[in-house]
Write a structure and sequence with these properties.
By secondary structure, the protein is mainly β. The strands form nine sheets. It has a 22-stranded antiparallel β-barrel. A hairpin with a 6-residue loop joins strand 4 (72-76) and strand 5. The radius of gyration is 25 Å and the shape is globular. It has five helices and 41 strands. The chain has a single domain, classed as TonB-dependent receptor, beta-barrel domain (Maltoporin, Chain A, Beta Barrel), CATH 2.40.170.20. It holds the Pfam family Plug.
């Protein structure tokens, strides 16, 4: 720790002597503080992926956009919009999907009140920029300790050409996107976008993906310059989720590059979704006050075969609003800003059903009770007997405030806080359950109900000081709570465990510099988490959740870019993570084992990436990037490590001339075979999820 603090101090002294230059590498954050702010002036670690990077990398899913950001782990086992996301260790407890991280699109929460996020209806080809805010305490984040990912789509008010994009690649990859925009007059604007994607992923069984997405936006500018903007979108997405591999099967994959005939019971996992969403926002300025009310609604359904059960839910609705106002005023200076808002969101599900699998093979094993039949493998994802039905109603209400001011010219201070009330109301009837110890179906627990509520608070104090015109130093203290999800509460309740909310406190110091030739960000942080929710296995092999006691996370992150000249740039990112359990007892075969002092699994101690870009006046362009994960422990007991991977490299070659663009993107250029996730349970069973081998796509874009 002393070494790193000394390093930062040395850099501060060195950068203080740089001559002042025009800032050109600065990116603007439009969401971190609810007010458009240069990223250098934000008193927290924030990363911004801009429109050019999204286009150059031909980004079609969220993980490809942010997997190079230090402190962020973004991987997908299906090469589709089904990622596992972790920010500074937050999100580690999720069995699938994303937890502990708030995802928003144009200010609208895509994360449900209980912290689950669906990425199915993100069309990355309509996204203009992505902001990643790391750590707790964001004014945007309700029920979130990990951070916020904000997606900013292309505004209907922004003048832009129409375009059509066509892409094709190996594994029957297909991509079609077109966007039309029209200004009817000076006050009325409309745009329409459509995307269709397909990928067979034939190197692995049960790994196909396809999606169809459409979005219609309308915008109006009133005579008093206030604006109204609305979007109606529809998504239909079908994702097959491949099975995990044993160690022997993983070795076969590394030798052949294909994954076939795995021994997993659950060969036909999937998530097929249909989502209709509507949002509207209004902005009006009256004197020094700007009003920004926002309303949103979405209706979704999904067919979701998972371990043991098939989820089939077609009556799900989400309603929400965010009523924000900004007040420019004088406090020490004329640059002060007060932000306040009210939020409300309701997620209601009616008659969500679970079914057994209809088709599966069985095996017979001898026990002391005689022969026992066990499920060996599923043969399809056809629905069998009705196993259960459930209704849930999750409500969240919140209030947030922020004050930002400058007591002296070079020092800005921001103070923010929010309080949210989260209520769960769940009832249902479990007729049949999957018994992990018997590896077959058994009689369920019958009728049940669960009511639980949490009061969640978050707060942040940040100071940002300008050392020079180019370089700022900041420090911040932030805290937030994280409530369990509905499924976690039910699982814990069945085992007599009363889950508590998580409390996260983050201390951070950082340095940011921007000039016309280089830019860099550094952050040193310590995150103390109490009652962190961890998934463990009980004596019957069931996944249950408990509070871990305490974890301590220390990390150092640095990212930078240097313009060698106006044509060539070079960049690097690095994260050091030392995350430990301070107190944690894990159940192992009916007994408890202390994990105090152990390292959290799946988090590599070292993670880095490198990239270089080329942009010539004649339209030729190129981008070469590579990423490396160091080794990490596979289990809470720290009995075994996975080696990680080195220099997984992507290449882009492109040519632009007037309204035409042709681009080749090759992912995993050297065709490395490795695991995107390796884990080991308390019984010693190892499982591996393969990362995608080499793939390529050729894309043509015409603007008109």
């Amino acid at each position: 720790m002393k070494i790193r603090l000394s390093l930062i101090t040395s850099i501060i002294l060195a950068t203080s002597s740089f001559s002042n230059e025009v800032v050109e590498l600065e990116k603007m954050s439009v969401t971190a503080t609810k007010v458009q702010t240069a990223s250098k002036d934000v008193s927290q670690s924030i990363a911004i992926v801009d429109e050019k990077e999204i286009a150059d990398k031909n980004i079609l899913n969220i993980q490809e956009a942010i997997d190079h950001i230090p402190g962020v782990q973004a991987e997908s086992s299906s090469n589709s919009q089904s990622p596992r996301l972790i920010i500074r260790g937050a999100g580690l407890k999720a069995r699938y999907g994303v937890r502990e991280i708030m995802v928003m699109k144009d200010g609208v929460p895509m994360t449900d009140p209980d912290s689950f996020t669906r990425f199915d209806y993100i069309d990355m080809q309509d996204v203009e920029a992505i902001e990643v805010q790391k750590g707790p305490g964001s004014i945007n984040a309700s029920n979130t300790t990990g951070g916020v990912i904000q997606l900013i789509t292309k505004s209907v008010f922004k003048e832009d050409k129409n375009s059509i994009k066509v892409g094709a690649g190996n594994d029957n990859q297909r991509n079609l996107n077109f966007k039309l925009r029209n200004a009817f007059d000076d006050s009325n604007f409309m745009s329409f976008s459509f995307s269709s994607r397909k990928n067979d992923n034939s190197w692995r069984e049960n790994n196909e993906f396809d999606s169809t997405q459409g979005s219609l936006k309308y915008g109006h500018i009133f005579s008093d310059d206030s604006t109204f903007e609305t979007e109606l979108s529809y998504t239909e997405s079908n994702v097959n989720l491949p099975a995990s591999m044993t160690l022997d099967e993983f070795e076969e994959f590394k030798a052949s590059g294909t994954q076939e005939d795995t021994s997993s019971q659950w060969q036909h996992s999937a998530r097929d979704s249909k989502i209709l969403s509507l949002n509207a926002k209004y902005e009006k300025e009256v004197g020094n006050i700007t009003y920004k009310p926002r309303f949103y609604f979405n209706k979704w359904e999904h067919f979701h075969p998972v371990t043991g059960m098939i989820n089939d839910s077609d009556d799900n609705k989400v309603y929400g609003t965010d009523l924000e106002l900004n007040f420019k005023h004088s406090l020490f200076s004329n640059d002060a800003m007060f932000v306040a808002g009210l939020t409300a969101k309701r997620d209601k599900t009616n008659d969500s059903k679970k079914y057994t699998y209809e088709d599966y093979s069985t095996k017979t094993q001898m026990t002391w009770m005689g022969p026992v039949s066990k499920i060996e493998q599923t043969l399809s994802n056809d629905k069998g007997d009705l196993a259960g039905i459930e209704n849930s109603d999750t409500k969240l209400y919140g209030l947030y405030v922020m004050e930002r001011f400058k007591p002296i010219e070079d020092l800005s201070i921001d103070i923010s806080a929010r309080v949210d009330k989260l209520k769960f109301d769940i009832d249902g009837n479990e007729l049949i359950k999957y018994d992990y110890s018997k590896e077959n179906y058994a009689t369920g627990k019958g009728e049940y109900s669960l009511q639980k509520d949490f009061t969640l608070s978050s707060a942040k104090l940040g100071l940002n000081y300008s050392l020079t015109d180019n370089t700022n130093i900041y420090t911040s203290v932030a805290k937030a709570n994280q409530a369990p999800t509905g499924s976690e509460l039910q699982s814990a309740d069945d085992d007599g465990i009363d889950l508590e909310k998580t409390n996260s406190i983050n201390y951070e110091i950082g340095l940011k510099s921007r000039t016309k030739t280089y830019a860099y960000d550094m952050a040193l942080y310590q995150n103390n988490v109490e009652d962190e929710i961890i998934q463990v296995k009980n004596a019957n092999g069931d996944t249950i959740y408990s509070n871990a006691g305490e974890t301590k996370k220390i990390g150092f992150e640095v990212s930078g870019i240097y313009n060698i000249n106006k044509y060539i740039s070079f960049g690097a990112n690095y994260a050091y993570s030392k995350f430990k359990f301070k107190t944690f007892e894990e159940q192992v075969r009916g007994t408890t084992e202390s994990r105090d002092g152990n390292i959290l699994p799946y988090i590599p101690k070292h993670q880095y990436s490198l990239f270089t870009t080329l942009n010539l006046d004649n339209g030729l362009k190129a981008r070469l990037s590579t990423k490396t994960w160091g080794s990490y422990y596979m289990d809470n007991a720290n009995t075994e490590k996975y080696e990680g991977y080195k220099f997984v490299t992507d290449l882009m070659l492109g040519y632009e001339k007037k309204d035409h663009s042709l681009q080749l993107n090759i992912k995993n250029l050297t065709n490395k075979y490795y695991a995107m996730e390796a884990s080991k349970d308390v019984y010693g069973n190892e499982t591996y999820k393969a990362a995608a081998p080499r793939s390529f796509m050729i894309t043509y874009v015409y603007k008109f």
